[in-house]
Amino acid sequence: MKRLLLSIFLLLFVGSVNAQTDVELKINHKLGVDDFVIDAVGTNNLGHEFKANRLEYYLTKITIVHDGGTETSVSDDVMALVRPEDEISTTIELGSFDVTAIESVKFHIGVYEPINNDDPTLWAADHPLAPKSPSMHWGWAAGYRFIAYEGFGGADFSQNFQLHGLGNSNYFEVESDVWVETDGGTMIMSLNGDYAAGLNDIDLTAGTISHGETGAAKKVLENWRDVVFGLYTVGVEENTVALDWSVYPNPSNGDIVVNFDNTTEINQVNIVNPLGEIVQTALVNDNKQMEITIPDSGIYFVTVLDAKGETIATERLIIK
Fold first, then answer.
1. Of 33, 153, 232, 310, which sees the most CB atoms within 10 A?
2. Measured between alpha carbons, how far is 150 from 162 in angstroms, rounded to an integer?
């Protein structure tokens, strides 16, 4: 009897240790804080306005960072041709893994060797690496276009830009924090892709055409590596009004108080998650205190808006 009980205990223990959780990666497509839409006006860090009419990029070799820095590689067979022009977000099913707390994600932009230099016609028609129209394959030696970014900039958006980044030497890895939610037992890692930042430090006023492994085409790939992906952050420098206010307790178990010395400048308080999504909002009245309950743990931003809807103060908030 004791041996039977011990066997049952061991089976339960092994089952709990090897419990597998389905994991997905979700990329929200953005132009700054707005959703990415074809022909929407975006602005890069040089102040150059543009309208995109094509954006595609490959995402491969994904790694989940979890449970105190453990790195678990996703199968190389999991890859995606991400097309922000088709949808406001892209979700990639990664598989089932022994994970409890996910901290960040790593992935590469482009196609890895030697697959990058293989024949694209060998893939099934519905595979991301199969021939596409317009083409995402440059040629045998160079391989696939890792990113194809096209549109118009300059005066009256009269200057066409075409940026096609490629090359095995430019197969860069990205690492980003993620916002994790659970839906029906599936863990969804979400992050934002800011494609206006993807054109940082590139002159869009004179019709830049760059196809290859150097120049502006390489700069796009470097931007994808360095500045495109991440979570929503608001720094203190964005405050435009000296406001005497406080949020407490912080950290909190979910119940917070927002306190103002006066409410003359203030119209609204928003609770914003790291993806830039407003999860709660409340209008401010003459009461100098507001009590707010946030049910889910995580990092949030408490933002204060004036009557024009402009953010005048922000504080980072941790819910345990």
1. 153
2. 4
Given the candidates 3.40.50.720, 2.40.10.10, 2.120.10.30, 2.60.40.1930, the CATH classification of the domain at 236-319 is 2.60.40.1930
- The vertex-89 CA angle with 85 and 90, nearest 5°, equals 95
State how far the Cα of 198 lies from the Cα of 209, in Å rounded to an integer.
15
Q: How far apart are CA 274 and CA 26, in angstroms?
A: 14
**pLDDT tens-place string over residues 263-289:** 677 889 999 999 988 999 988 877 778
Q: Do 298 and 319 contact (CB within 8 A), yes or no?
A: yes
For residue range 190-215, what is the model confidence (pLDDT) as tens digits?
A: 999 999 999 999 999 999 999 999 99
Residue 237, class by beta-carbon neighbours within 10 Å (0-12 exposed, 13-18 middle, 19+ buried)? Answer: exposed
Residue 30's CB is within 10 A of a number of other CB atoms, namely 23
Residue type, 125: A
Beta-sheet strands, E only, within 178-297 = 179-183, 186-194, 209-212, 229-230, 245-248, 255-260, 268-272, 278-283, 289-293
- Other C-beta atoms within 10 Å of 202: how many? 23
Domain ranges of the chain: 19-230, 236-319
Task: Report the distance separating Cα 83 and Cα 192, nearest Å.
Answer: 14
Buried b / exposed e across 248-258, counting CB within 10 Å, b at 16+?
eeeebeeebeb
| Spatial contact of 273 and 298, defined as CB atoms under 8 Å apart | yes
DSSP H or E run through 163:
strand 159-166
Cβ-based burial of 307 (10 A; exposed 0-12, middle 13-18, buried ≥19): exposed
